[in-house]
């Protein structure tokens, strides 16, 4: 299998696992142009080279650089026992965005709860003040 074919295999693997959805998205992740990624995907010089493969593996450490460069070993690195969260790096990019959105929503909900609590305390104080006024008017 040619080096660019190994890259295509890794590309398809990551794409199928949601790491990215298009060459454009991969280009953004790698800080390259879509034309660069497309050229590399098809094994075209000067886009496809060892430097490109190293940057690809740096962004996606679950891919074995020795597999891409030399065809040695398995394509996907197996997490070491000392890395209990080793699979986390394979989470798709949208998962990080989703986690961020949920975190922001939780914070917004906490702020709203705090404001609601404060409003309820103000209503209770106004109610007590109104009750005192009614009692004073009766006497």
Residues in helices, as a percent range: 55-70%
The assigned structural class equals mainly alpha
Distance between the termini: 98 Å
Stretches where pLDDT falls below 50 for ≥5 residues?
A: none
Total helices: the number is: 6
Order of helices and strands: HHHHHH
CATH topology heading of the largest domain: 434 Repressor (Amino-terminal Domain)
Report on the biggest sheet: none
The tally of domains stands at 2
- Count the beta strands: 0
Oligomerization state: single chain
What's the level 1 CATH class of the largest domain? Mainly Alpha
- Quote the beta fraction: under 5%
Overall residue-averaged pLDDT value: 88
CATH architecture of the largest domain: Orthogonal Bundle
Descriptive report:
With 139 residues, the protein is mostly helical. It has two domains: 3-82, 434 Repressor (Amino-terminal Domain) (Orthogonal Bundle), CATH 1.10.260; 92-139. Helices cover 66% and strands 0% of the residues. It has six helices and no strands. Helix 2 (23-30) packs across helix 3. The protein is rod-shaped. The model has no long low-confidence stretch (mean pLDDT 88).
Topology:
Layout: H1 3-16, H2 23-30, H3 34-41, H4 50-59, H5 65-70, H6 93-138
Helix pairs in contact: 2-3
List keywords for this structure.
139 residues, mainly alpha, 434 Repressor (Amino-terminal Domain), 2 domains, 6 helices, 66% helix
Provide a brief overview of the structure.
The chain has 139 residues and is mainly alpha-helical. It has six helices and no strands.
């Amino acid at each position: 299998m040619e080096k660019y074919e190994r890259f295509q295999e890794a590309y398809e693997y990551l794409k199928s696992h949601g790491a990215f959805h298009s060459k454009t998205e991969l280009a953004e992740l790698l800080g390259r142009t879509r034309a660069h990624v497309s050229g590399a995907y098809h094994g075209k010089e000067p886009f496809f080279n060892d430097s490109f493969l190293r940057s690809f593996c740096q962004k996606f450490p679950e891919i074995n650089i020795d597999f891409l460069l030399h065809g040695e070993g398995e394509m996907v690195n197996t997490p070491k026992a000392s890395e209990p969260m080793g699979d986390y790096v394979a989470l798709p990019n949208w998962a990080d965005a989703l986690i961020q959105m949920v975190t922001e929503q939780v914070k917004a909900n906490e702020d709203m709860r705090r404001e609601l609590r404060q409003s309820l305390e103000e209503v209770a104080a106004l109610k007590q003040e109104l009750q005192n006024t009614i009692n004073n008017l009766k006497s």
